[in-house]
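re the bet — no i am not wrong, look at it urself. input seq straight from the record:
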Amino acid sequence: QVHLVESGGGLVQAGGSLRLSCEASDGIHSNYAMGWFRQAPGKEREFVASISWPGANTYYGTSMKGRFTISRDNAKRSVYLQMNSLKPEDTAVYYCAAARPGTYYARGSADFEFGSWGQGTQVTVSS
């Protein structure tokens, strides 16, 4: 129902930073949590971060706390992921997700199961 497009991925040196963006289009609802997931080669999809509607609460995966920051701009129907102090272990495809309308809080895959997903953006951290 909601089309999500990620951008901002790329190649960065260890210790560097990237800012991912996810823009939503179409749909009539915006009252939903949004989040980021990632999947490294051969690994299970991992919860990265989420932000509630309208944006007062944020949640992070264990390895992301203190390094990643999720935010949203509801007027632009966008969500962002600022990634600092990147490590090679952060290398993965990062996916943006929007929960179903009315799901104000979402902290894991199950909460986004019936929502919308982007196609992903590659993040590669060297050295």
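see?? Residues 15 and 85 are 4 Å apart (CA to CA). told u. also The first strand starts at residue 3 and ends at 7. so pay up
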